[in-house]
Amino acid sequence: MAKEESVSDLSRRKFLGTSTMLGLAGIGLSTGLSACKDGGAQAAADSSAGAATAPAHGAGHNPHKLPGQLDDYYGLWSGGHSGEMRVLGLPSGREIKRIPVFNMDCMVGWGITNESKAILGTKPDGTPKYMVGDTHHVHASYAKGTYDGRYAWVNDKINSRLARIRLDTFECDKITELPNVQGFHGIFPDKRDPVDQNVDHTTRVFCGSEFHIPHPNDGRDLESPEKYGALFTCVDAETMEVRWQCKIDGNMDLVATSYDGKLAASNQYNTENGIHYEDMMSAERDACVFFNIARIEQAVKDGKFKTVGDSKVPVVDGTKAANADPKTALTAYVPVPKNPHGVNASPDAKYFICAGKLSPTATVIELEKVLAWFDGKLDDIKKTIAAEVELGLGPLHTAFDGRGNAYTTLFLDSQMVKWNVAEAIKFYGGDKNAKYVVDRLDVQFQPGHTNASMSETREADGQWLAVGCKFSKDRFLPVGPLHPENEQLVDISGDKMIHVADHPVYSEPHDFIIVKRDKIKTRQVYNLDDFPLALKDPKESRVERHGNKVTIHLASQAPAYSLREFKVKKGDEVTVILTNLDKVEDLTHGFAIPKYNVNFIVNPQETKSVTFKADKPGIYWCYCTHFCHALHLEMRSRLIVER
Ligand code: RUQ
Ligand code: CUA
Ligand code: CA
């Protein structure tokens, strides 16, 4: 698309009315096919001219890696309502790992082993408390304004849980369920301690919730939506305990944090507190709400909080009415156009960018001015807005290249727009010659999230941009009614964006971060000392009985288990504790028991356990499911259940 056309063309479509937006939203959200007719019309034409005009790799950096060549970045991807997280190598786009988080996974035994169940949480009968999850946003821990490779976090929107992934093992080690909220959507770790400014690394994770519910949600106030509320939640990054919550007016969506640790922000699309979408679209402006973290923590210390129902978590009052005086306010509400989506902090630490979604604009909010407002030095909160400029239809999320440019997804236009923040501020300030739109690129199709390499750190390096397209339509071989989504890779190292690759992805990733590979140091084997149940020596293998509880202490060493057979009686509650005594990196064994729903793996120097009721007499060949050795097929043991 010619870039000259863009700005004037936009003016014609300036601030579409609610009904038009509704139509567009309908087009956007109903079917993939019609979705592509709007923004994607030219794009579709482009793509059918197609493969031939597809960007030659010579035109951008080659994303391909030769066999055996490692990638330059880790891509940490959410998996949407698959409930998992994924790890891609970039720029190649090769999928390296899937990390089960809120889902069951019989490859590793997530949701099957006692250890994973303890993390997931169980019902009194020992089954997982929840079976479903919906991961949207992945963010990683910071030190000195950049990733420190300790942790990543991901949210579960369905059951309002926050999960932590250790980045030395790429495994989930803790899950916390947030009380008193529904529709937990945006997350962001703080980038340094908001209270003790000497602590220059992540200490807390902030969580926004989209849906209003009664407090407590125990059957009261069912038909009184005006009594529903939404809470912003702070979770301790180390203990993963919920520290406090803050009640606000309106709802929350995405979350971003400032580089000085002092502020967290969330875009609000439902300041109307509407129940139906028409109500949620009725106001001309919604808001971006800012949380003054140090003040909130002081209020908690001073005992200025309530609790909700059975929850012990302190809840402070961040509503407008309670925070009219800026000098004591816990929250600040910056008005932004209609139903914004996405808020992102620029790597120069100066601005928050809130995208318009139903307005074709992005709003640039200046961090220093927000702090000035909290200090009582700014008479009008609207003065925190450094720019509000038109970008195109359906702006959602923004990434940065570290050279002053922002890249925003335009969902309805099926486009990426590259724009210069400083020029946008000039333009908004009255300099109509300022050309802030630098480039436009059609994408296939309807992008939601985007992110650039190291974008949300002080080390944004402006190399690669990934675009999470919600529809792939005709880009891949058809596989029935459900199409994959299309993660597109764009070279942003030059002035123009160059689209270099498409990758089909299984539904449905939302957000992702792209982390330089040297930020992450993984371990090669586990440490038996970390497992209290570990069997240190195969000679200790044994069957222990206490009443009808039987414990099998078992080891694996390729190509055999340490017990050739183990006998139990019908009705016994059996726990198998399996330690993998192999020490070689990647020498993983599996353990499956037919008819008993048991299957899991143990990595080198790791211990895991399962518990089941031996309710079916007979012979059950426990076998190794993970290819480990030339005699892998022979790696078996007999479970004998006597009647
Ligand atoms: S959302 S398409 Cu779940 Cu991050 Cu914006
Ligand atoms: Cu052990 Cu396969
Ligand atoms: Ca609204």
What is shown here, in short?
The protein is mainly β.
Give the full name of the CATH homologous superfamily of the largest domain: YVTN repeat-like/Quinoprotein amine dehydrogenase
What CATH architecture of the largest domain do you see?
Answer: 7 Propeller
What ranges have pLDDT less than 50 throughout 5 or more consecutive residues? 1-57
Mean pLDDT: 92
Instruction: Decide which structural class fits the backbone.
Output: mainly beta
Rg, nearest Å: 26 Å
Percent of residues in beta strands? 35-45%
How many DSSP E strands? Answer: 39
Strands of the biggest beta sheet: in what spatial order? 8-9-10-11-15
Subunit structure: Homodimer.
Keywords: Calcium, Copper, Metal-binding, Oxidoreductase, Periplasm, Signal
Enzyme class: oxidoreductase
Subcellular location: Cell outer membrane; Periplasm
Features:
11% helix; NO_Rdtase; binds calcium ion; calcium ion binding; single chain; binds dinuclear copper ion; Methylamine Dehydrogenase, Chain H; 643 residues; 2 domains; 5-stranded mixed β-sheet; mainly beta; Immunoglobulin-like; binds (dicuprio-$l^{3}-sulfanyl)-sulfanyl-copper; periplasm; globular; 39 strands
What does this structure look like?
The structure is a single chain. The chain is mainly beta. It folds into two domains: 73-402 and 507-519, Methylamine Dehydrogenase, Chain H (7 Propeller), CATH 2.130.10.10; 528-642, Immunoglobulin-like (Sandwich). It has nine helices and 39 strands. Strands 8-9-10-11-15 form a five-stranded mixed sheet, covered by helices on one side. α2 packs across α3. The protein is globular, with a radius of gyration of 26 Å. The relative contact order is 0.11. Residues 1-57 have low confidence and may be disordered. The chain binds (dicuprio-$l^{3}-sulfanyl)-sulfanyl-copper (RUQ), dinuclear copper ion and calcium ion. The site of calcium ion has 10 residues, from loops. Homodimer. Its EC number is 1.7.2.4. It is a lipid-anchor. It catalyses: N2 + 2 Fe(III)-[cytochrome c] + H2O = nitrous oxide + 2 Fe(II)-[cytochrome c] + 2 H(+). Nitrous-oxide reductase is part of a bacterial respiratory system which is activated under anaerobic conditions in the presence of nitrate or nitrous oxide.
